[in-house]
Amino acid sequence: MMDIERTKQKGRKWLYPVIYVLFFIVSMLPVYAEKPFAPQDTQDVIFNLLMVCVNPYKAFAPVFHIATIVIVVLVVVLKEKMGRILAAYMGLNYLVIAFVQGKGPTEKYGFVILTGILVGYVILGVTWIVVAIRAELETSFKNVPLHRYLLLPLALLAFWAPYAPHGMGVRPSFNPLLLFTSPDYGLTFCFTTPVFLFLLILFYPRVNAFAYRVTAFNGLLYGLFNVTHFFNPELGWMGVLHLPLLIISLYALILPRVTRARKSVR
């Protein structure tokens, strides 16, 4: 069985800290807004865009939910033959997310461009498309360690995104229809990435190590950024809904080290 982590990336451990720093720098790229704003209002500019950026695209939300379900079913049936398709789907989805979340009109600040999000997610999208071209992802649920499935409830929570706008914040909304209609899954990074990473964790180590790690690092990075929701009473539930991103990303980053340690013991 192919072990891409071991055969393709051996001896490149030094590369990842450098790449992580570069992605962190990208995430800090300046925000552009049509209307001037003070530097201390940057987070408010970002929040104003992220609260409305998916609205024009809500009608497409079921497409991403259904496509993901179909791909998972096909992985069960076709196994490794779905590797290229899944990688390509992830790449295209990240490109969609980049242009949905990376720019758009706001009432308070006019047209806004979140440069870090736009650039970072485009890089992720292109990375996974390259993985698809090179066929460096094997998809199979065979012989997956059972403990990895403990992350399934968190992935389902992200897929569901059970919330509704409430004033200047959000409140829980456990409407089962959101399992197919939530505009956050498929159109936002923070709710889509936990599902992608959960699948990659199940397939690990038959994954492209570089794409896997940079996706997990960006997930952890934006998961930490969104911990600040807990400090706003109106957005506390949004903080809870970002825990899947934080926890699954952290697990994904730790998994390669744990796997190597177990192999060395054997």
Care to describe what's here?
By secondary structure, this protein is mainly α. It has one domain (4-260). The protein contains twelve helices and five strands. The strands form two sheets. Strands 1-3-2 form a three-stranded antiparallel sheet. It is globular and about 55 Å long. The relative contact order is 0.15.
Total discrete domains: 1
| Overall residue-averaged pLDDT value | 92
Biggest sheet strand line-up: 1-3-2
Q: Compute the CA-based radius of gyration.
A: 18 Å
- Kindly report how far apart the N and C termini lie: 18 Å
State the major sheet: 3 strands, antiparallel
Spans of at least 5 consecutive residues with low confidence: 1-5
What are the secondary-structure elements, in order, as H or E? HHEHHHEEHHEEHHHHH
**Helix proportion of residues, in percent?**
55-70%
Strand content: 5-15%
